[in-house]
Amino acid sequence: QKEVEQDPGPLSVPEGAIVSLNCTYSNSAFQYFMWYRQYSRKGPELLMYTYSSGNKEDGRFTAQVDKSSKYISLFIRDSQPSDSATYLCAMKSGAGSYQLTFGKGTKLSVIP
Amino acid sequence: GAVVSQHPSRVICKSGTSVKIECRSLDFQATTMFWYRQFPKQSLMLMATSNEGSKATYEQGVEKDKFLINHASLTLSTLTVTSAHPEDSSFYICSASGTGALGPEAFFGQGTRLTVV
Fold first, then answer.
1. What is the pLDDT of residue B31?
2. What's the angle, vertex CA B20, arms to CA B18 and CA B26, rounded to 5?
3. Less packed terminus of chain B by CB within 10 Å, N or C?
4. Residues in CB range of B53: below 8 A, 6 or more apart
5. Residue A108 in 3-state DSSP?
6. How many of the other CB atoms lie within 10 Å of CB of B21?
């Protein structure tokens, strides 16, 4: 079993839809969870960073962490064509460790 | 968020030559930098981790003599692909992490697309 599992998609939704992206993980040592957005041929851009179980909201984006189930989600409300990208979940253990473990990424297309 | 600048964004080189890629943290001190390689439609593959002033730690299967990493200062790390071959053609991305108030997030450069002909 891989440490981080993420459905690669592709996921195609109409403009305005709510998008749900998910990752599961097996390593209970992971404490920090991040979501990155990567446009084609660009470096990943940090979208959200969470530590605690629960929800964190930033504009149209909500990150959700359930440590008991080892499951994290990213919700995008009112999706826009500009949200079309690959979304990578990433996680790491304690604050002293900088190495991230990535999911494979989910390719999202928002259709106008 | 913090800014990481990677240069060049694209490079084409002849087989057998060496190519240097720079990764700079512009507004923070990067104690640790990471170098990744990404193949089309694949996730990021960690190549090596470098801490300022010490030798890089390479992941299994990554040739340290082929991919030379230097992290001479808290704001600059370089990756040199030596004697490049067509199979080294890929998208290389660096990331950097700082300390203290910056938080545990990693910030990425824009990536370098290397094509070896």
1. 81
2. 180
3. C
4. B71, B72
5. strand
6. 24
pLDDT digits (tens, 9 = 90+) for A22-60: 999 999 989 889 999 999 889 999 899 888 889 999 999
Residue A101, Cα to own-chain centre: how many angstroms?
A: 12
Instruction: Count residue pairs from A and B with Cβ separation < 8 A.
Output: 56
Q: Which residue has the tokens 């720079």?
A: B22
- Cβ of A93: how many Cβ atoms within 10 Å? 15
CA A72 – CA A67 distance, rounded (Å)? 8
The answer, for A112 touching chain B at a CB cutoff of 8 Å, is no
3-state per-residue secondary structure call for A29-72 = CCCEEEEEEECCCCCCEEEEEECCCEEEEECCEEEEEECCCCEE
CA-CA distance, B66 to B64, in Å (whole number)?
Answer: 5
Beta strands B112-116 and B10-13, pairing class: parallel
Whole-number pLDDT of residue B99? 62
Average pLDDT over residues A13-18: 97
Q: Which of A102, A90, A91 is nearest to A29 (CA)?
A: A91
Tokens 């989600």 locate to A73
Which of A32, A43, A92 is nearest residue B6 as measured by Cβ atoms? A43
The whole-angstrom separation of Cα A4 and Cα A8 is 12
Answer yes or no: do A102 and B111 touch at CB < 8 A. Answer: no
